[in-house]
């Protein structure tokens, strides 16, 4: 499989190349040059497979030429062996129509583990072949950071620099990052929002001075969902859930708490691969750029408002570019032009083909604090389920989407409620406990560096601490 950039001028790469590159050299995001498609009978044949076997089936077309099926199986077995539930991503019924897909049984209690446990092993596998060294620079609103650090801490060929917006992640999220003591882990608390941190990370990918500072021996990669491998691994659980609910003979809808548009884009990929998806509901908090874009075509970023669902406090959604590229006829030059406009003015209008294409599969909802709390209360009363704030936003959108009652609606439960225990306690009055294995999280000592929200300060820090590549 070859991958092309959404902005049309970076070289096409194979799976190994895009995994190690992270972001394309023209500033675009890599997508497969075509969507592999399964027939109905191939999808029916996936029913009943273990999570690892399903992952191998779904991901094989994407890794062809870079990994054998055996290598992929071995990596998946090790990655998903670290999950605390045998089903890896169990499905829980709430009522006749509503379901939760629990994605938080990995080591750091968020859906990010599903992809990052695999990505850490992919990096190691590919780097061992060339005996090379990688510098990972990432931005997090809390969950990517902890999952990525867990996935790469202590790995010899990798340094990780993780930027989080100072004071804007939950205390559990921060401690999951800052209490990890490994020489290759560097936590940076940055003044500003997640969007500011994400913009700095993207800038570093094409910073010639940075490469020069290491005599050209600076190999940077990404753990954010700009890295294609992240999304590829997330496609699998859409198949897992839909198969359990009757696919391919029955259509299923998904409601996805959304920020950077990575998780829901993985649902779009599943649909392109032949999975019968009735609808993908993009559920946002009050940082609603995606809801506005999908309902009015206006993709314009305002300032980020801190909310009880901090991981979704995002206004510039990286992966939306992948969707717009695909819906706009895969015209790299036009996409580059559209994104240049957005980068200079922080606003753009979707074209008619982008709007109409999106409307065929996506709908959206903006969910405020009171509505989120309402969904938490409903889940507690109806089914004894404690939801985290992000999942509650997804569930509220699912229950108000007005879908045919015969269509099952699966809300992606993206985090364990204990990661956001203050917000959950404020909304419901009860405080979820951390799993036993994390019981001492608040006794561990923290280590992080505080930096101003200035690119130069971050670049200087990374430059000083990164190990050169070979
Ligand atoms: C708990 C949680 N829910 C939802 C999201 C939004 O997912 P995405 O950024 O893939 O849209 C995030 C962050 O990415 C998250 O950490
Ligand atoms: N919510 C995310 C933000 C980064 O998103 P990513 O999926 O692109 O890594 C987080 O928790 O850090």
Automatic annotation (TrEMBL):
The molecular function terms in GO held by this entry are:
pyridoxal phosphate binding; threonine synthase activity
Enzyme's top EC category: lyase
Secretion signal: which residues? none
What's the EC number here?
4.2.3.1
Where does the source fall among the domains of life?
Answer: Bacteria
Provide one Gene Ontology biological process annotation.
threonine biosynthetic process
The alphabetized UniProt keywords are: Amino-acid biosynthesis, Lyase, Pyridoxal phosphate, Threonine biosynthesis
Record's protein name: Threonine synthase
Q: According to the entry, what is the taxonomic lineage of the organism?
A: Bacteria, Pseudomonadati, Pseudomonadota, Alphaproteobacteria, Sphingomonadales
């Amino acid at each position: 499989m070859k991958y092309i950039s959404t902005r049309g001028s970076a070289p096409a790469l194979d799976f190994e190349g895009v995994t190690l590159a992270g972001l394309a050299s023209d500033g675009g995001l890599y997508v497969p040059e075509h969507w592999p498609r399964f027939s109905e009978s191939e999808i029916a044949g996936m029913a009943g497979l273990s999570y690892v076997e399903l992952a191998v089936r779904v991901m094989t077309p994407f890794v062809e030429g870079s990994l054998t099926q055996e290598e992929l199986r071995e990596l998946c077995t090790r990655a998903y062996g670290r999950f605390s539930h045998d089903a890896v991503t169990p499905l829980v019924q709430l009522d006749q129509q509503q379901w939760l897909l629990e994605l938080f049984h990995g080591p750091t209690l968020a859906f990010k583990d599903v992809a990052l446990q695999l990505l850490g092993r992919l990096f190691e596998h590919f780097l061992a072949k060339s005996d090379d060294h990688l510098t990972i620079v990432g931005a997090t609103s809390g969950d990517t950071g902890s999952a990525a650090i867990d996935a790469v801490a202590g790995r010899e060929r990798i340094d990780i620099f993780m930027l989080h917006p100072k004071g804007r992640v939950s205390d559990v999220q921060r401690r999951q990052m800052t209490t990890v003591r490994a020489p290759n882990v560097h936590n940076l608390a940055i003044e500003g929002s997640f969007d500011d941190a994400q913009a700095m990370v993207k800038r570093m990918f094409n910073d010639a001075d940075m490469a020069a500072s290491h005599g050209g021996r600076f190999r940077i990669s990404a753990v954010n969902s700009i890295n294609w491998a992240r999304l590829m691994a997330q496609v699998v659980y859409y198949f897992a859930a839909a198969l359990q609910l009757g696919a391919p003979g029955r259509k299923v809808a998904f409601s996805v708490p959304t920020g950077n548009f990575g998780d829901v884009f993985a649902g779009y990929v599943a649909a392109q691969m032949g999975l019968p998806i009735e609808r993908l509901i993009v559920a946002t908090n009050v940082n609603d750029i995606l809801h506005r874009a999908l309902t009015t075509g206006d993709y314009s970023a305002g300032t980020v408002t801190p909310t009880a669902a901090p991981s979704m406090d995002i206004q510039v959604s990286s992966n939306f570019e992948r969707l717009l590229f695909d819906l706009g006829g895969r015209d790299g030059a036009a996409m580059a032009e559209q994104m240049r406009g957005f980068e200079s003015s922080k606003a753009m209008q979707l074209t008619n083909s982008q709007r109409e294409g999106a409307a065929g599969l996506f709908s959206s909802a903006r969910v405020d604090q009171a509505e989120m709390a309402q969904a938490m209360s409903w889940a507690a009363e109806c089914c004894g389920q404690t939801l985290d704030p992000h999942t509650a936003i997804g569930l509220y959108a699912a229950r108000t989407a007005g879908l045919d009652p015969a269509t099952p609606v699966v809300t992606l439960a993206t985090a364990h409620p204990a990661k956001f225990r203050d917000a959950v306690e404020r909304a419901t009055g009860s405080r979820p406990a951390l799993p036993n294995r994390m019981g001492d999280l608040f006794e561990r000592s923290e280590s992080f560096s505080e930096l101003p929200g200035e690119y130069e300060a971050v670049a200087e820090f990374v430059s000083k601490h990164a190990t050169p590549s070979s």
